[in-house]
Write a structure and sequence with these properties.
elongated, two-stranded antiparallel sheet, 136 residues, 2 strands, mainly alpha, 5 helices, Immunoglobulin-like, binds heme C
Amino acid sequence: MMRPRMPRGWSAPLLWAGLLLAGLLAGGCGVGSRSALAAVPGGDAERGAEALRSYGCGACHTIPGIAGANALVGPPLTDWSKRHYIAGTLPNTPENMLRWLQSPQAIRPGTAMPTLGVTEEDARDISAYLYSLGRN
Ligand code: HEC
């Protein structure tokens, strides 16, 4: 009886490689679910909506719930709590969000997003509002 068989000792490494790949994929998704739970200490979403209007963020961004914020100069901020990265570089966490809102030019010199003089308190409120987007 001659049946073609994989040489002994091959199947185990293949199994491990498969498990490792599955683990990596599952880990990648975990990043997203963590950022979806992001909470901003001290942030007030209602004041954040007010700040988004007064800084004129809607001149460049589409922001659900903010009247007139329909622009597409920068990326739309829809479903913000589900995004993995800020400006394609920083993991989307509350701390990084505060840094980005206050000094985008320091984080990404030359980015089209201007440093608008957003105060720490306003950045917290704005973040609280933006992280409320995309939660169901
Ligand atoms: C002059 C236009 C402009 C204004 C005004 C502006 N932004 Fe931006 N914003 C941009 C651009 C362009 C980017 C993309 C930056 C990059 O990737 O380098 C960006 C990126 C962002 C991001 C990350 C988006 C992503 O998908 O990664 C957030 C969050 C953000 N802006 C929030 C704000 C808030 C809040 C305000 C108001 C305080 C604001 N922006 C004002 C142009 C603007």
